[in-house]
């Protein structure tokens, strides 16, 4: 099913759900309901903003909920179950293409690259993308950004993903690591910390980064319904300012300091692994250093979607990206 069709189903679901829209507040603090698409070290600056008190400094209490998946996250946002969503920018395009009366507007960037890595079963000293030809490649689910980026990178290196290798895309996201660990595939596309854990366990070896290869995209960011932004400009500005403080803090802090700050959000993960993952993402520039979503990144996103056959329509940058709040807090 195409991504835009999925979002159409989301809209139908949203119509039938009744949530109160808006953030609650008392005399000193506004409570913002934030829905995150998944729990990931990839989103370190968000957790830093909470743990280091940057939201609190701006008079915001964050009620954080993990909604597990782009479809669920967008459903929650559109139906009023959240004030702000952390999710891939492509979902806002799917919603807009369905002529939504109250579209989701992207107002702040969190990650600016794809967060997956290419992991090989065998250790490779001098990796070359040509090595994937004729191999079995365990990719991500059809219609998701990881899959679209994965195919984009393969094509960039002269590999037809549907002709030059055996591409497996029918395994659920949560089961991909276990499928590779049990012997399926010569290569797999994985998020952290699984990629690092596989290296430590001797299951696989990181040989390339899809984030580096695909370039800058508004991969994951914060969005809210147009009506919410209009009615809560001060809240959005303070939220964005807190995020920017966290982004600056992450940029200037050591991997160890960042790992300690976000460890409470990953209690089941060893601090050494968190630190290693932070290093992998920070060293390649995965974390956005400012909340401003760049126009060239937006265009790159649509090019990747179009190449994958998942772009329902071309949407102008100004239609779904609001940079006013980012620009103001960066002054």
From TrEMBL:
Q: Which keywords are on file for this protein? A: Signal
**Which Gene3D superfamilies does the UniProt entry name for this protein?**
Periplasmic binding protein-like II
Establish whether keyword Protein biosynthesis is in the entry: no
Whether Signal counts among this entry's keywords is yes
Major location, coarse class?
Answer: periplasm
Gene Ontology CC entries for this record: periplasmic space
Q: Which domain of life is it from?
A: Bacteria
Would you indicate the residue range of the signal peptide? 1-25
Q: Give the Pfam families listed for this entry.
A: NMT1_2
Q: Where would you find this protein in the cell?
A: Periplasm
Q: Which family does it belong to?
A: Belongs to the bacterial solute-binding protein SsuA/TauA family.
Q: What is this protein called?
A: SsuA/THI5-like domain-containing protein
């Amino acid at each position: 099913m195409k991504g835009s069709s999925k979002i159409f189903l989301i809209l139908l679901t949203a119509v039938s759900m009744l949530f109160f829209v808006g953030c609650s507040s008392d005399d000193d603090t506004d409570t913002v309901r934030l829905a995150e698409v998944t729990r990931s070290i990839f989103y370190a600056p968000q957790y830093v903003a909470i743990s280091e008190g940057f939201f609190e400094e701006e008079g915001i209490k964050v009620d954080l909920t993990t909604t597990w998946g782009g479809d669920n996250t967008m459903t929650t946002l559109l139906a009023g179950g959240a004030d702000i969503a952390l999710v891939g920018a492509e979902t806002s395009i799917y919603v807009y293409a369905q002529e939504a009366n109250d579209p989701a507007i992207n107002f702040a960037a969190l990650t600016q690259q794809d967060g997956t890595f290419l992991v090989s079963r065998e250790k490779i000293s001098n990796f070359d993308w040509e090595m994937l030809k004729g191999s079995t490649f365990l990719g991500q689910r059809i219609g998701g950004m990881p899959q679209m980026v994965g195919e984009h990178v393969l094509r960039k290196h002269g590999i037809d993903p549907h002709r030059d290798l055996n591409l497996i895309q029918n395994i659920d996201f949560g089961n991909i690591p276990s499928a590779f660990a049990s012997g399926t595939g010569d290569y797999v596309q994985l998020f952290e910390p699984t990629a690092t854990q596989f290296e430590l366990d001797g299951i696989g070896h990181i040989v390339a980064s899809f984030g580096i290869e695909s370039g800058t995209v508004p991969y994951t960011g914060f969005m809210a319904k147009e009506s919410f932004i209009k009615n809560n400009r001060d809240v959005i500005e303070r939220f964005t300012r807190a995020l920017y403080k966290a982004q600056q803090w992450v940029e200037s802090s050591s991997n160890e300091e960042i790992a300690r700050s976000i460890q409470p959000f990953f209690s089941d993960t060893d601090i050494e692994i968190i630190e290693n993952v932070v290093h992998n993402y920070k060293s390649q520039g995965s974390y956005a250093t400012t909340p401003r979503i760049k126009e060239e990144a937006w265009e790159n996103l649509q090019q990747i979607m179009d190449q994958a056959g998942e772009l329902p329509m071309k949407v102008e940058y100004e239609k779904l990206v609001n940079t006013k709040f980012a620009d103001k807090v960066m002054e």
